[in-house]
Structure formats: C-alpha cells, structure tokens
Amino acid sequence: MAQSSPPGSETTARFAHITGWGKALPEQVMTNDDIAAFVETNDDWIFTRTGIRQRHIAHEAESTATLAYNAARQALEVADILPTDLDMIIVATSTAEHIFPSTASQVQDWLNASEAGAFDLSAACSGFVYGLQLAADSIRAGSTDAALVIGAETMSRIIDWTDRSTCILFGDGAGAVVLRASDTPGGVLSSVLRSDGAGGDLLAVPSVGSIDAKESPVGVNGNQLYKISMAGGEVFKFATRVVSESIEQACRLARIQVEDIDLVIPHQANRRILQAAARKLGIDLAKFMSNVERYGNTSAASIPIALCEAIEQRRIQSRDHIALVGFGGGLTWASMIIRWGVPKPSEQHGSLIKRQQRHVQYRLARLRRLRRRMARRLQSSGD
Ligand code: UT7
Questions:
Q1: Which of 23, 47, 83, 135 is the most exposed place for a label (fewest CB within 10 A)?
Q2: Which residue segments constitute the domains of the chain, with CATH numbers given?
Q3: Ligand 1 centroid from CA 221, angstroms
C-alpha cells in the first residue's frame, strides 16, 4: 500500500495510467416502443430528438452496487491486480441505495479490498471524470498506488415513469477503471472540473434533506421526492456550450491542440449535443464515441461504459490522445485529456495465479463479512 512521503523527501515523477476497465449492463432491455406503450411518445420522436433506440433496465434483484461490483471485477481482471492491492475506491453515482453506507463501501466489502478507502462522489453525469481526476492526483502525489474508479447508476429507480420528457432518456449500467501509478510518462495529462450551482434547479432529484419536503412530499419546483426533473432545453444549451469550451481548456492545459485529439468520449446524453459540440470544435463527428442508441443516458456510468466499448472496438491505440467530457446536474461539467499508455487488450496476459487469488479473495469476502458481524455481536453481548 502506498504511503505519503514526508515533505522534502526524494521523489521521482509519477504518472497515473488506466490499466484495467470493465462494464456491466442489466440484461433487461426496454425499447422506445416499450415506453410508447405507457406514455404518449413514439420511436421516431425519441430517436430523432435524442439518438436513443433502447436502454437497459435493472432487475429488482440488481442495484447500483451490484452493477458497480460486476464492472469492478472485470476491471481488476484486465489490470491483473488483486483487490487487496487497491488503495482507493471511488463510486460516482446519483442512485446509491443508501445515504450511507456508500456504494463504494459495499463494493469494497464484496471485493475483499481490505486495504482500500472507499467513498461515493456526487457530481451527477460529470462524476466519473471528477473521480478519475481525484484518483490521478492522489497517485501523482504518492499517497495512492492503485485506485478503482467506478461510475454506476440505476436511473430507472429515480425516473418518474409518467413524465415523457425524462423517462425516455435514461438507462442503467456501470463502468469501472483501474488507475495505477507508473513512471512511464502519459496517462491523465490534464483536467478541468467546474460547477455552476445557480443552475441547480434545471436538473434535480430532491432528497431526504430537502427543506421543501418537510411541508409536503414534494420537492424543488413542485417535483416529487427522489424523482428526476429536468428543464431539457436549458440543459441542452448549457451542454453544447461547456462541452466544446472545456475540451479546449483541457487541451491547453495538456499542451496539445484540439486537432491532436484522436477520440472524444463524451457523456452520452443526446446525439444532437455531440453533433453541436463537434461542429463548434471543428472535429469530425466520427471522432466522437457514441453508444447512446443502445444504452440511453446512464449518467455517471456513461463515460466509462463508452470507454470500455471504444477499447473493445479497437478505437484506442497506444499514445492516442483521448478527451473525456461530462456534464449534468449541479450544474457540473468536467473535461480530461489522457495519453493512452497501456498495451492493447490482445497483448495482455492475465496471470493464472493472480486470477485464482482474486477468486479466492471474492469467496473470502463473504466469510470475512460473516466473521466480522459475528465478532461484533459477541462483543456487544459480552459488554
Ligand atoms: O445527463 C444530463 C444532461 N442531460 C442532457 O443533456 C439532456 C439535454 N436535453 C435534451 O436532450 C433535450 O432537451 C430533450 C431530448 C430532453 C428534449 O428535446 P427538445 O427538442 O428540447 O424537446 P422539447 O422539450 O422542446 O419538446 C418539444 C415538444 C413539446 O411539445 P410542444 O410543446 O412543442 O407541443 C413536448 O411536449 O415535444 C414534446 N415532447 C414529446 N413528444 C413525444 C416532449 N417529450 C416528448 C416525448 N414524445 N417523449
């Protein structure tokens, strides 16, 4: 496990590279036609306005945490490290099952990542890029060697299924990456994290602490507690502005030109937003990764899911410059430039012994949980 160095001690340059990735999507698919069966809408309207054809919806036995866990296991497999090698687990989410314990702590327990700190991060659809930046900074500062950053959501649980302006947009899923320290230059080069809280009411999910809720079960703007509301047109205008602006800023910080970007992996909210951003930046739309058609908007999960698919489709090569950009509730937005530095999946050979060790650790996690709970019970009955 990494330790902070005392001030003034000898340090060599450290870089933060993505070395593992994974995704998890619920099996159940809901098409536009399925939605048209219970609200007044149709496939043509949804596809023309958003680019979405279908989304995945969690089964009742699935949760944000189970999706996060499945994506995390894949990411550890690709990175070929043990859960006990992890120093930090961050889950970016707006759909945690609990205020606390955090989703990250649930994942930490299930993985048996006994050396890791764990916390959830709330920055809506920008959350994954926020988390990646925090983890990269911690790695470069020397206090973390290996971090797991996850974006996971069950948006279906906070949708008002009678509101056709929002229920057509969202889906469930999770994506995860392992970020590791390396002395190879590259990895996370720059980032721009921003917020404009004055626009908070444009995209909101009132929750347990909502002052309005003390009077009635209705939150900000007359919206239901725990249900999403959005001023779609306003958010659309905000998104098209910040995507191009923040990518330009992140390029300047990374000392590259916008033309040097090989692939943009944007938050998957609406294909028209990507078209507008590509026009503004003067980048060919073909350089924008898009899978919104199949998954809809999975909020904090959309960027890591799209990253996984870009890798699977061999759209990322070693030394490519990748731009990540997220935007959403808060309002928040975030851009990041990464110089890709890990071998292509085909060149990676997971070690058999480590794979077996991981499986043993997952099994042990359950036993460890039972043992700890039992010990706590015994201790409190003896007090
Ligand atoms: O992840 C967070 C970031 N989120 C986003 O970036 C989302 C940004 N916003 C958007 O993607 C778009 O604003 C939407 C897709 C949500 C809406 O598209 P729009 O082109 O802005 O449509 P609109 O809200 O202006 O509605 C146009 C019309 C309205 O009818 P009238 O008033 O013109 O008669 C709506 O009532 O379309 C109607 N409408 C629908 N019709 C059929 C709204 N929703 C639907 C629907 N099916 N599902």
A1: 47
A2: 15-341 (3.40.47.10)
A3: 18
State the burial class of residue 32 (Cβ atoms within 10 Å of its Cβ: 0-12, 13-18, 19+): buried
Q: How confident is the model at residue 8, as a pLDDT?
A: 43
pLDDT for position 214: 61
Q: Pick from 342, 339, 177: which is nearest to 261 by CA? A: 339
Tokens of 370: 């039972």
Query: Counting atoms of ligand 1 from 1, which one is nearest the CA of 50?
Result: 15
Atom 45 of ligand 1, residue of closest alpha carbon: 165
Q: Which residues of the chain have pLDDT under 50?
A: 1, 3-9, 220, 345-346
Which of 32, 125, 291, 308 is catalytic? The answer is 125
- Indicate the pairing of strand 187-195 with strand 203-204: unpaired
> Active-site residue 42, yes or no?
no
Cα 167 to middle of ligand 1, angstroms: 11
Catalytic site residue 297? yes
Residue 191 near residue 322, CB atoms below 8 Å: no
pLDDT the model gives residue 217: 59
SS3 state at 187? strand
Q: Answer yes or no: is the C-beta of 300 below 6 A from any ligand 1 atom.
A: no
pLDDT of residue 376: 87
- Which pLDDT score is estimated for 368? 87
Catalytic residue among 223, 297, 308, 321: 297
Cα 42 to ligand 1 centre (Å): 13
- pTM (two decimals): 0.94
For residue 7, what pLDDT is reported?
44
Beta bridge mates, 336: 191, 324
Closest atom, ligand 1, to C-alpha of 168: 48
